[in-house]
Amino acid sequence: MRLDGEVLLVTGGARGIGAAVAQVAAREGAAVAVLDVLPAAYGLAIEADITSADAVGAAVARVERELGPVTVLVNNAGRNAYFDPAEMSEADWDALFAVDLKAAWLMTRAVLPGMKAGGRGSIVNVASLHARLTTAGMFPYAAAKSGLVGLTRSLALDLGPYGIRVNAVSPGWTATRLVEDYLDGHPDPGARERVEGLHPMGRIGTPHQVAEVVCFLASDAAAFVTGAEWAVDGGLGARFA
Fold it and tell me: Which domains does the chain show, CATH number per domain?
């Protein structure tokens, strides 16, 4: 019961890593709220556009009314990107960064009054291995996730005096539905074996394995951890390709 008494709000919690965070947090005793554009099956489910300041404010106000002030925020919602840098439109750029970076700030800004009033809080931003290492053909995902890690460090410094910790988790290959569909539908029948073989542990991760780290960082067990980026990638980031 590491999160007993906490009110945890996770974005993008209808599926994948976000849904796993909601499940693990509930198991650990937290009252859970989920924000997503899709219906969620766990906790207080709110459909909201997290790129809209008004929608974010209304959603957080509802969580506070029904569950109490948010003490743990998990900024999990995000989008992949597959653009040519010469052909990507300004609208595409703005849409990607609105979800992958701006939304984390909007969510943080909305919960800060309650956290400051309570003298404590924990924010965990779900970044990506792409914040440090990336591949061709995924422009500008790495830039957005690198920005999220930078945001994490800045917030940790500015909010530390208020008793609020801010950390990032950077997953690698994780068996979400999108990843499983990609590997199952890959034209190369050896794609899954090749991807798994890149990992020192010989496999990719699961959403719940990432969620366990998120919930650890959110809890008092990590009370002296802030401004950190934790890789949850099965050692892939340690490999010299």
Answer: 7-233 (3.40.50.720)
Strands (E), the chain: 7-11, 31-36, 44-47, 72-75, 121-126, 164-171, 229-232
* Overall pTM surpassing 0.70 (yes/no): yes
Confidence of residue 180 (pLDDT cuts 50, 70, 90): confident
Q: Is the dihedral of CA 49, 54, 58, 61 positive or negative?
A: positive
**pLDDT tens digits along 9-28:** 999 999 999 999 999 999 99
The first and second tokens of residue 145, run together, are 């996730």
The encoded tokens of residue 183 equal 């590997």
C-alpha closest to that of 163 among 224, 105, 216: 224
Catalytic residue positions, numbered? 141
- What gap in Å lies between CA 219 and CA 93, rounded to an integer? 34
